[in-house]
Amino acid sequence: MSEQKRSDNRVGHESGSGGAGYNDGMAVFSYITGGIIVWSLIGWGLDNLWDTRWIVLAGALLGALGGFYLSYMHGLTSSKKRTGGGRASSGPSKDGPSNAK
């Protein structure tokens, strides 16, 4: 099986269907929700340890921002249609010798 066919058959990247968008959306939702839960629990523990009440809210905000950051870094928040497996094409560039130094 060729490399192109293998990359098209990855989970969440079915060729010719809208499954990738749904799976990407679920991944974004999971990153953000998971970040909120984990960092809220860390904030709750620190609130109980230090007798404060605001760290849990800071933890929830940090978790949401961290989840969105992870989604962005994984390329899940882009509205552009992705092509291939995210790899750069191999070989020389097609713009000719004008950019050669």
Would you write up a description of this structure?
The protein is mostly helical. The protein has a domain of 47 residues. The chain has 3 helices and no strands. Helix 2 packs antiparallel against helix 3. The longest helix has 32 residues. The two termini are 39 Å apart. This is ATP synthase protein I. It comes from Arthrobacter bambusae. Keywords: Membrane, Transmembrane, Transmembrane helix.
Write a brief caption for the model.
This is ATP synthase protein I. The protein is mostly helical and 101 residues long.
List the helices and strands and how they pair.
Elements: H1 3-8, H2 19-50, H3 55-73
Compute the number of helices: 3
Distance between the termini: 39 Å
Structural class: mainly alpha
The fraction of residues assigned to DSSP E strands is under 5%
Instruction: Please tally the β strands and state the result.
Output: 0
Summarize model confidence as the mean pLDDT.
78
Poorly predicted regions are 1-16
Helix content: 55-70%
**Helix and strand element order:** HHH
Computed over alpha carbons, the radius of gyration is: 21 Å
Major sheet summary line? none
Shape: elongated
Protein name: ATP synthase protein I
Biased composition (Basic and acidic residues): 1-13
Keywords: Membrane, Transmembrane, Transmembrane helix
Region (Disordered): 1-22, 78-101
